[in-house]
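User: I'm new to structure prediction. If I give you an amino acid sequence, what do you actually give back? Let's try with this one:
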Amino acid sequence: MKRYLCVVQYIGKNYCGFQRQDNGISIQQKIEEALEVGLKQKIEIFASGRTDAGVNALAQTIHFDADISIPEKNIPFAINQFLPNDIKFLSAKVVNDNFNARFDVKKKTYVYHIYVSPVELPVKNELSYWLKKQPDLNKMKECAKIFEGEHNFKAFMSAGGQSKTFVRKIYSIKIKQKNDDISVEVTGNGFLYNMVRIIVGTLIEVGYGKKTVRDVQTALKSENRKNAGYLVPPYALFLKSVKY
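Assistant: Good question. You get back a string of structure tokens that encode the predicted 3D arrangement of the chain. For your 244 residues, that looks like this:
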């Protein structure tokens, strides 16, 4: 029996989230079904963390244990044929038996994609969030610095979050624009329920002058969700990388 670390990419719009749920088809379900067919054994997978309904992943990491003779480099080819077009294995390798895809995570990076246009653009709408007017990126970048470091992010968690502790560390928030496309890249040691999407919504409000940097400082200290910004939609959010 060996433990495998695999990198998986997916588009989340057709799923109820990564984790198995009773109310819909999950990404975990589709992967475990494909593994059972491809490897001819029932396998449970463990991910670096859950992604919510509609959220995408460029490089989600999972681990599982299996007794197979397939070379690790061939596992993606063996499994991908049984997966839908919106979920695919990118790589697989054997790791130490003590490795854990969730608990060994050191850093995660999410990126949120935005585009600015006077009208909606159908070719971008699937995976990018539409803003009708240009926000002030300098104000957004100034505000982003407030989030960096270790803070209590309870005000930036949606109702329904199950975390019992609310202190997380943000290593960096990078905001970039090329032509009409804006990206907000957030790297941290972990995130609360909807935390990245609320941070992005807050930054957008700052960019439009609806909130000030001081308002955001107050929101952090208040630990009250009502004081933070709005929740941007999930389809433009991507789990970019996981570091161990």
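You can read the tokens as a compact description of the fold. Here is one thing that stands out. The mean pLDDT is 96.
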